[in-house]
Amino acid sequence: MEIVGDYEYNNKDLIGHGAFAVVFKGRHRKKSNFPVAIKSITKKSLAKSQNLLGKEIKILKELTELHHENVVALLDCKESQHNVYLVMELCIG
C-alpha cells in the first residue's frame, strides 16, 4: 500500500491514466469504507506545466467549496519528492 496523508492506495487499483498523471482507487486509512480517487502526477512531467497544476488545484478547491452534487470534491493535496497527489471524491458511474 502507498500512503498519501490520511489516505492509501494499491498500485494494482488503477482507474485510468493520461499524459501527466495516473489515477488509483484508494481509501481513507481510518475509515476503510470511504473510497477516494488518488491522482498521482509526476513532477518530471510537470517541468513546463507547473503553473497549470497550481491553477487546477486552485479551481478544484474553489469548486469543492460549492458542495454541489455534480462537482467532484478535492479532499486533500499532498506532495512527495517525485509526485504531487490530488485526493478526490470517487465517482462511480
TrEMBL record:
Binding site for ATP: 39
Gene3D superfamilies in the record: Phosphorylase Kinase, domain 1 (3.30.200.20)
InterPro entries membership: Atg1-like (IPR045269), Kinase-like_dom_sf (IPR011009), Prot_kinase_dom (IPR000719), Protein_kinase_ATP_BS (IPR017441)
Cross-referenced SUPFAM superfamilies: Protein kinase-like (PK-like)
Domain Protein kinase as annotated: residue spans: 9-93
GO function terms (MF aspect): ATP binding; protein serine/threonine kinase activity
One CC-aspect GO term: cytosol
Domain of life from the UniProt record: Eukaryota
UniProt KW keywords: ATP-binding, Kinase, Nucleotide-binding, Transferase
Protein's GO biological process: autophagosome assembly; autophagy of mitochondrion; axon extension; piecemeal microautophagy of the nucleus; positive regulation of autophagy; response to starvation; reticulophagy
Protein name: Protein kinase domain-containing protein
Source species of the chain: Hermetia illucens (Black soldier fly)
